Each structure stands twice: as structure tokens, then as C-alpha cells.
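Problem 3 from the worked examples.
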Amino acid sequence: SNTASIKMALANDSFWDNGPRPGAFHATVPRPMGAAAQMPVTHSAQPTVTGTSVLGFKFDGGVVVAADTCASYGSMAKFRTISRLKTVGQHVLVGASGDLADFDSLGRLLDSLLLENVDYDDGHALTPKAVHSFITRVMYNKRSKFEPLWNTVVVAGVQGGAPFLGYVDKLGVAFTDDQVATGFGLHVAMPLLRAARDTQAHFTEAEAVAVVRKCMEVLYYRDGRSLNKFELAISTAEGTRILPIQEAPTTWDIAPMVRGYE
């Protein structure tokens, strides 16, 4: 009879494949079949769309941070107006080189941390040291699971009237200094930043901005993944601010004199 046929069909397991079998939970994600079901779970093992150098430099009463706006897909300048600087509350700046998707993931974690701090409503704001420590724990935790966030992060701000500038890499290795750089800037811009620091012990905000802007100009000439458009962010006791995108003046008049690199 028709009733018996229906009962036999309903009793067949294949009838309920990827569907809500009575008395069971619905499988919302299709289950892998065949050889795919035997493969281990994998994670991204290398960056895809990336940003290059981030620079940080202390001055009297604050910190200036800079990053260009280029996002590269391999050797192609895929996006040219990407911001790699982020404010966390009123007193913390975060910039990152490396994979932009991973930086976005880290940014969501920082937003959650900020929201949690607001929920406490205890009169205490997030500090640069706290955010720096939090990021070191996140990075070390992720690399211990063999799924690192492929970023090198700069954390800046002013805490207790003193400028703070910290560095964290994808392994969780961290330190603080008066000047930091990530990516190619660690090789090209860091000597320039240290040389500037050696010439004088104290900098005004304008002097620090001039030093960092010069370094960004040099990086555009020397780093094939950089762009002459960049963002500057400044953190002082009054708060943090990210300035509009700037463009470094460039000239290639000396290009015909360059020989031996073909």
C-alpha cells in the first residue's frame, strides 16, 4: 500500500541526508564525503593580502605612528586606500603589517575587549600597556595552536603622562622602545629613526612627524610593496587621532643614473 511505501522511504537513512531527521539535530554544514572526510583540518599557513611597514616614534608627550595605505596581493598593489591603523578607545593606537584579514580578526577581538571594558563602567579606560599585553597573549595563544595571526603589531599611546610604544610579532615576542618598525621598515627605516634619535634626545610633535614622514618617503623608493600615500596617527595625553591620507613628494630624476641592478 501507499502507507507502507511511505514508511519504508522514511526509514531509509539516505532520505534524511543533510536534513532534519525526526528526533535528531539538523546538520547545517554539509559533511565531507570520501577522501575529504579523512583529511585533517587545516588553517592558513601564509598571508594572502598584506600590508608592509608600520613605523612608531616617540616625542615629548606622545607618539607618532605611520603606515602606508597599500594592500598587496603577492606583488600586485591590489588595494590603495586601506587603513592599517586603528584606535582602541581614546588613548590607544594599534597598527599592523602582514595579513589584512588577520588584522581584521584581531581588530574584532580588540573591539570586544573595549566593549567589555565599557560594560564594567568602573571609571577605568583601556591603557596602552594593557592592550599591548592582551595582544601578546592573543598572538602566543594562536601560534601555540599552529594557526598564527600573520601580523606584526605596533601599540602606541600615553599612559600616566608617559609615551608608550610597543611591538608584538606573530609568535608573541614583544618589547617596548623609543622607536619601532615592522616589515621592510625594520631594515630600512629603523637605522634612520635611530640616527635621528642619536642627534637629539627630545623631539617636538612637529619634529617627530617630519622624521617619520621622511622615512615613509624613503620606504616608497626602496620597498616594492609600499606606496607614497600613507596615514599618520598621533597619540598624546589628550587622546588619539588618525590624520587624513597624505602623499609623499617623489621624484625619479636620478633613475637614469642607477646602474648594475638590471
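Problem 4, a separate protein:
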Amino acid sequence: MFAERFRVRRNWLLGRYTVRTFEGHSQGISCVQFDEQRIVSGSSDKTIKVWDIRTNKPWSALTLAGHSATVRCLHLSGDRLVSGSADRTIKVWDLKNTGKDWSSAACRVTMIGHMHTVRCLQVDDNKVVSGSYDKTLKVWDLSSGQCCLTLRGHEEAVLCVQFNARRIVSGSADRTIKVWDLSEGFCINTLCGHHDAVTCLHFDDNRIISGSVDSDLKFWDIITGQVCLFLFLCTIY
């Protein structure tokens, strides 16, 4: 593992690399995921493409059609792909064995319940948590596609979300971050401090880091909701 990383880094620094372009979408690409075998892209052309990472030949790409509007977010985990769209739905796709037979991929579940674009989502083995322009978050049963919880509290679109075994953390165009109890669905804390939409975040057991259109990165104490001493100013494009 160390030798492989050293080789990749050395080749990158010395300019010994090849740029490969994957072409096939007819409109802009809005989201992407990848693993060791595949690149998955979602587009305004309403499709998802699954690319063999070893080749950029157009014939090698699988096209997943089913959404009726822009594919806005993706989560790839093993052979399971989950997509959210401006058509207000979430779809669960089975990519098992697609390396040998592209035609075996299929949409297994469609989740219906949001009233506007599904902007962000995260998935584990049992559930999907999604955030939408309808200002809500929803927790879904992955197998049945049924909505288990609807979380209300944001005053504008939900733009980013992450969860763990106990908490959901969401960022919104209302400039706030909310920490939710995953099992009961109530808001534990609301973090205020950004001056524009919160577009990305990540958290662990102790801290939340958030990025905003206000060009700031903020570190927060996840328990108290207070901003830590670390604050970086940057330009977000």
C-alpha cells in the first residue's frame, strides 16, 4: 500500500500521468461518486451513467434512465447506488454484477414524499436520509422505501446532510446548521454564525466543520454549538 501511494505521488509530481475524459452526457454533470471499479455521474440530462474506471470508451458506460428531471445527488456504496433528483424522488439502484452484464442493473425502490428537489442524501445499510429544497429532511427505510421520519425546522432549502448512529446534521440556505436526534427526529441544537447559505459540512463525535457561500469555514463544538477558535477565511467558487 505504501509503495503504491509513493509511486502515484511521484508520478504526479513528475507529470507522469494521463488525463482521461469520459464523454456521454448531453447536459451538465451535477454530481459524481466513484469506487475502485466505477465512476458514477448524474446529469441535467436526467440520466445516471456508470463508467468502467479502466476505460473511457462510450460503449462501456451503463446509462440508468428513470428520473424525469436533473439528477442532483448520488451515494454509491458497494453495489447499491442511491440517487436524488429535481423530480422530487429518490431511487435505489442495484448495480450487482454490472461488471459482467450491464443489463442487470435495475431500479429497486422509488421513494416519493418530498415536495421539491432532493438536494442531498446519505445512505447506510438500513436507511436513507435526504434533504430537499422543500425545507425538510426525511429518513427512509432503504428496503421498503417508506418514509419513517420527517424533520421540519429549517426556513429555507436543505443543502447538505450527514448522519451517524445517533445524530443527523444538516446545513441550509437559511444560514443555519441543525443537529437532530436520529431516533426521535427532534432538533437538539441550532448553530447560527454563517452569513449565507451553508453548502457543505462534516462532523465527528466532537466537532462539526461547515463551509458557506459567505466564504468562511467554521469549526463548531457539536455539544455546545459554540464556534471554536479555528476560523479560516477563503473564497468558495
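Solution to problem 4. The mean pLDDT is 91. The first strand starts at residue 29 and ends at 34.
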